[in-house]
Write a structure and sequence with these properties.
- InterPro entries: DUF4232 (IPR025326).
- This protein is α+β, with helices and mostly antiparallel strands.
- The protein has 2 domains: 40 residues, no CATH class; 138 residues, Immunoglobulins (Immunoglobulin-like), CATH 2.60.40.10.
- Helices cover 16% and strands 34% of the residues.
- It has 3 helices and 13 strands.
- Strand 9 and strand 10 form a beta hairpin.
- The protein is globular and about 50 Å long.
- The C terminus is likely disordered.
Length: 197
């Protein structure tokens, strides 16, 4: 055997030892595809904020200056969640600071729509169950000397004192210079309704 062939054979032997063959004891086998239990549990908790519900919104429905926004609250926990009354809502600016906006439950001077003026009733959400409420306002400018208000975000909690979640309505909250919006009560939603985005 020539020196060149001997060197080539030695390199091949070293390479074979360094890379284990499939099925050998050193072969780690296929990579696991399942998420470890601890990671999965953490991801589930992160997707279900306190107090066990997730809040989403639909698109703003605009007609002749009247704006309506559907808010949904889904029980993402593993036990029933009791809702009674109105969501607690604050309008935030670009800097996430509250704007000077009066938020009132069932404000009839905005509209006489039944969704806004209905009386609140207790709602029990089973895991996966959803309740909805409506937020309404008017985009009116009644005084040209008053700066119009436009909110960028809504901070919404299931009720006063509960942890809030921040959502971003498409197009913002264009209140003109009315400085107010009305909030309807939580009502049970049909399980067949499409989820809000």
């Amino acid at each position: 055997m020539t020196a060149r062939r001997a060197a080539a054979a030695a390199v091949a032997t070293i390479a074979a030892l360094a890379v284990p063959s499939c099925g050998s004891r050193q072969d780690p086998g296929p990579l696991p595809t399942a998420v470890p239990t601890a990671v999965a549990s953490t991801a589930t908790q992160a997707a279900c904020p306190d107090p066990g519900v997730v809040i989403r919104i639909g698109d703003v429905d605009a007609a002749m200056g009247l704006r309506a926004l559907t808010v949904s609250m889904t029980n993402c926990g593993d036990r029933p969640y009791q809702a009674n009354g109105y969501p607690a809502v604050r309008v935030l600016g670009d800097d996430h600071k509250p704007l000077d906006v009066r938020v009132a439950p069932g404000t009839s001077d905005i509209t006489v729509d039944p969704a806004l003026t209905a009386a609140p009733r207790p709602v029990t959400l089973q895991p996966g169950g959803t309740a909805t409420a409506v937020v309404m306002w008017r985009n009116l400018v009644t005084d040209s000397t008053v700066v119009a208000t436009t909110g960028t975000y809504l901070e919404i909690a299931p009720t006063t004192g509960a942890p809030a979640q921040t959502v971003t309505p498409k197009g913002g909250i264009d209140l003109g210079n009315t400085g107010k919006l009305g909030v309807g009560p939580w009502t049970a939603a049909s399980q067949s309704e499409p989820a809000q985005s």
